Amino acid sequence: MLNDRCPFPIGTPQLMIYSGAAITLAVFGFNLLGDGLRDVLDSRL
Question: What are the C-alpha distances in Å from 21 to residues 17, 25, 37, 38?
Fold first, then answer.
């Protein structure tokens, strides 16, 4: 996503910021989902 926006960093830097924020939120969401699933499914905790 970020490489698609590289030709336009000078005129429209918000395109790179929005793409980076979307990637960050997706990774954070999957991390939270994985932690939640581990807590629910792991009987040792």
Answer: 6, 6, 24, 26
- Is 0.70 surpassed by the pTM of this model? no
Of 21, 28, 30, 15, which Cα lies nearest the Cα of 3?
Answer: 15
Q: Are 15 and 5 in contact (CB under 8 A)?
A: yes
Residue 41 tokens read as 């499914």
Chain segment 5-43, per-residue pLDDT in tens: 566 566 677 777 888 899 999 999 999 999 999 999 987
